[in-house]
Amino acid sequence: MKISNIILFSFFIILLLFSITTYLNYALADLTNENTEVFERSSVVVRHSNRFQRNFLNMVSGLRGYLLTTEGFFIQSYDSAMQENEDILKELAILVPEQAQQQDLLRDIRQLHTYWIQNFAVPLLEARKNTLLSDSTKRAFDKFYRVKLVDGLEKDVQASLQRKFSQFINFEYRLRESEREKLKASVHNTKVVTISLTIISIVVGTGIAVFIAYSISSKMINMVIMANAIAGGNYEVHIHDRGKSELSQLARALNRMARILDTNITLLQRQRDELDQFAHIVSHDLKAPLRGIDNVINWIEEDHLAALPKGVVDYLALIKGRVARAEDMLKGILQYAHIGKAERIKEVVDVNELLLEVREYLPSRSGITLTVQTGFPMLFTERIPLVQIFTNLMVNAYKYHDKTENGFVKVYFKDAGKYYQFFVEDNGPGIDPKYHQKIFRIFQTLHPRDFVESTGVGLSIVKKILDDRKLTIHLESETGRGATFSFYWPKDETHE
Known about the structure:
With 496 residues, the protein is α+β, with helices and mostly antiparallel strands. The chain has 3 domains: 3-202, Four Helix Bundle (Hemerythrin (Met), subunit A) (Up-down Bundle), CATH 1.20.120.1730; 248-338, Helix Hairpins; 342-490, Histidine kinase-like ATPase, C-terminal domain (Heat Shock Protein 90, 2-Layer Sandwich), CATH 3.30.565.10. The protein is built from 10 helices and 7 strands. The protein has helices spanning 3-69, 72-95, 101-130, 135-150, 153-231, 246-304, 310-338, 351-359, 383-399, 458-468; strands at residues 346-350, 368-372, 378-382, 407-416, 419-426, 473-477, 483-490. Strands 2-4-5-7-6 form a 5-stranded mixed sheet, covered by helices on one side. The longest helix is centred in the middle third of the chain and has 79 residues, at 153-231. The protein is rod-shaped, with a radius of gyration of 59 Å. The model is unreliable at 448-453 (pLDDT under 50).
């Protein structure tokens, strides 16, 4: 399976678990809100119930006080409590669910309350008002009062009303406790499920992450091993991976690349060997006839120089120059072909002594002053390539110099961090910028060979030495303003 599909599938699993957890918490929040509403409604019901009972007691005490004293204050208290109870009964009828058992109790309470008013309170109040007319009505009221209040029926009605309200309130409390227990159980279940899903999400996510990390890291390690092997020259390395993931496809692509590299490197190595062999054969096979030509000319000069016309002598000298140039070119070909193939032997090199050695190879030119900066550094590096670079640059500076007086060649250096930057500067004829790249090609010269004897190999050797070490050479020059060649060289190659 592709890694992208595994990641996408894992994401959907974790997203599903997260969605379930979110839904459960959302449902719990709704249930909590519902329970809060139930508790608030229950609190209102209980509060109204207590007010109703308190008002009923006020009605009873107000009725008895008026019957005993006929004071208007008591009847006002009675009327106020009765009106408030009517309002309370209406509100309770709205608050209590229609299908609940409390509706039956509420109907019984309303009936008992109405029965007490109609059968006790109203008749007694009417009878009490009539006692003011005559003594006989007062005696009749006393008798009626004993029948209604003293004989016990009215107390039974009050007791029944109180009992119904107790049942009503107890039912409300049980309902509230039931809702509380339901909420508690829901909270507990939600907590358990949420924790379980969270643990599952962590385990699944960790497992998937470990699996993906292991799959990627193991394949990447194999690829790194393969890349290091290829960098070390082993192009036959191979990764065994038959998976369908992106990294498996990359591994198979690397296998194909290694096979192609092996084929191409083998081909290049064979071509390189053929070129080296060709260069060696050409240089050695051509040297023999060149030496033969040179020997024949020497014999002619030794035996017949006095008898030869001056023009013939000049032609013989020209031929000898061409032979010497051809030999130098063959020598340059061999030097160019051998760059980078010899074993690199590093040693401590004193650049001051190296430059003294290079001075011996400089052509004799009057009017040119050589200035070498003092205090050149000590390097741990290869000596021969550095000698070749300085020799070719300084010899070229002398060879192509056009001044007969006040000419100079300067050699100096600068510190450039991990490298030194070396300079060879002259005030010669300079080089047009359009030829700055051409001069580093093998056998390329800017002057006719008859004007300046040159093989055109020196700067190409310098360039190849630096390219082989991934170093650079720079040229700053314009026509008529001299030239400055500079190159970088590492300070210490101990760990390279």
